[in-house]
Every structure is written in C-alpha cells, then in structure tokens.
Amino acid sequence: MAKTAVSFFWFRRDLRLEDNVGLFYALQSEYPVIPLFIFDDSILDSLPKDDARVGLIYDSLLQINKELQSIGSSILIKKGKTQEVWQTIVDEFEVKKVFFNKDYEPYAMDRDDCICQLLEQHAILSYSFKDQVIFEEKEITKADGLPYTVYTPYKNKWLEQFAKIKPLQEYNTTQSFSNFYKSNFDFPALEQIGFVESKIKVKPYTLDGLANYQEQRDFPAVDATSYLSPHLRFGTVSIRKMVAFADKTNATFLSELIWREFFMQILYHFPKVVTQNFKSAYDGIQWRNNEEDFKRWCEGRTGYPMVDAGMRQLNETGYMHNRVRMVVASFLCKHLLIQWQWGEAYFAQKLLDYELSANVGNWQWAAGTGCDAAPYFRVFNPDIQLKKFDEKGIYIRKWIPEFDLGYGEPMVDHAMARDRAIATYKAGILT
Fold first, then answer.
1. Which range marks the domain in which residue 231 is found?
2. pLDDT at res. 2
C-alpha cells in the first residue's frame, strides 16, 4: 500500500501554533503536515529527572496536542538521538519536505547541519526560518560588515532597522490548519520520557505593570518582573508579539529584549565565549576556585543577605531577580575569586530561563571578561545593594526566615575582598 506523501514541521524552541514562521510556511506546502517534537537524549541525559524545564516543554506540547486533536490531528512525539530518530522517520513516512525554525546555539547548528545532510541523502527538501529573533546574527552589523561587540551602538542600529520594518508581520497559521495531517499519534506520559513532575513550576508570563518597568525593575521585593524569559526561551510566545508590545509600552523593557539578541549574535560570531573569556587579556587571572567557598555560595550561606536570598530563591524556585543576579555573580567572581565558568554552569542547572548566550554573556559581564563588560575594578558592595534595593528587608526575609534571629557573619570582609580582587585582576591581565 502506497504511503501518503507528507511534509514535517519540527518543533524545537517554538512551542506554539500561532504566529510561528516555520509552521506557517509548512502549512502552505502541497503536502499534509505532520508536527514533530524530539526529546533529544543528547540533552536530556545530563538533566535531573525532575527538571522543571522538561516539564514546561511537556506541558506546552500537551497543549499543542489538545489544539490539534480538536481539528483531527496530533503531534508526533519521539525520543532518542536526533539523527537516529530522523532516520526512523524517513524510513516510516514518505517525507517530501521538512520545515523548522533556526536555532543559533553551536550544538543546535551542528545538529541541524547533520539532519539536513541526512534529509538531502533521501532527496528530502529542508527549509529553515527566522522565528526566535527580530534580527539574525548577520542582520545588525557595522558598516564594514563586522559584528558589534558593544551594546549601545548595536541597540541604536537595531532600533534604526526596526523602524523600517514596523509593523511586524504576523504569521496567521490558523487559516491553514486544515492542512495538518489527520492522525491520532500516541502522546506519551512524562514518565515514559524518563522524567517526573517537578515541584518547581514555570510561572505564566504577565505584561501587567510594564508601563512602570524602568522604575520598579531593580527592586526584588516589588516582584514587577514579567516572568517572560522562560517563555521566550522555549518559544511558547512569539518574540514579534512581545517586541511589538514593548515598543508601544516601555523603552526599557524593549531594551532588555534587544540585549537578548545582542548576546545571541555575540555567541554566533564568537563561539569561544561558551567556555573562554571574550577578552583573552583576562586569561592570566589567578582564580582561587575554592570548592568550599563555592559550596557556601551555591547554598546561600555566605553571610551576605542579598547574595544568600538570591541563591535560595534560585534553588527553591528556578528564578532569581535580575538585580540580584548581578550581585551574586559579582560576589562569586570578585569577592571569592571563583571563575565565572563555575557560576555559569550552576545557573545553567538551576535557571528556568537558562539560555546559553545570555547566561554566558551576563556572567562574563559580571566577571569583567566579556564584551562590553563591567570594568574589573567595579566590585558590588552587597550591603549597599541591599540598602538601595531592599531597604526594608522584605525580599531577604522572604528567603532567609532566620534573618532576624541573629544572622551569621559574612564569610569574607568586603573591603579586603575588594582590594584582593582588584590586585588579582591587575596582576593577571595580560598586556
């Protein structure tokens, strides 16, 4: 019996049906479309079995499947090594075309190159699209075509180009839903994928109150954040929708979305930043890298309330307020002289909104080793940060219930640590 010729749409970091560029074009193809998601063992094998980010992916796919079932379709869920999974798919189905949205991280680009080669060997056409950013890695460059490495001129060029493409195009997929392949694929339980439900939950994003974002965003007790970043990370919401909203509502919030794209293009053009300093002059710094100090930092037992509250919030919820992130990162690199890669790896394990480019970029900013970074002699005083941004101690008391019962002494004196950090950096910077 002849197989039905089909197209595939491969979900990855775009877990939504609406305003999805690759899906929009897949549904325009002449073949019925099978939506696919692959739980990639190359990524999953390193994660704890109760990872809340896997839970978010699973719940998002479940919602997509419910919507598809209402029109007589369903999503095909697979698990395994991506290339092996695709080999089974091309053996099982008469695949004519494959559509997907681009991913700009090094592992993802290598994976996609391998899959496209496999598809080409089977005479299957593949199409990739820009979806998770407004401007890709080569669309905002200097006049000579080189990438920007300083944020402000990048932002100015970004805004200049953005003004030329407003209003942003929306990709109305619903008008072509009839072109989904009629199916009722089995949807696996979370346990069948090898995971269990996490006690940590990803919060829904909110755009309420963003009109005052610039006035409230530095105060962790106010809880004025949008909780948008995990949803942008996994594409449960369209970046075009969010940028259009920010453009009309708050310039500071829009600037934060531009930072996201700035770090993405830095990672693309300078992939060494995943493990190495952007500024190689900092390669000679002699870090202390004390494991017991690092353990105390991870557990929120440094004796500095804002640092400890931030780490405990991260450990318990998978979130940390952005102002507090700067304080805890500076403390690790400057006060404890532990290299940024240690902190970056810990955040990668814990953050619900973990994104490689932003995590690496922000950690190198805090350490002073990255592009457009804070100068090495800028050392946050955690006590002054506490007085400025949580004067009444509301935030710290939420995460440190024992605070008023005689909180412990700081593990390191600020003045001594500051002098030590500056001296160590000076001695280590290569000229």
1. 134-168+211-269
2. 60
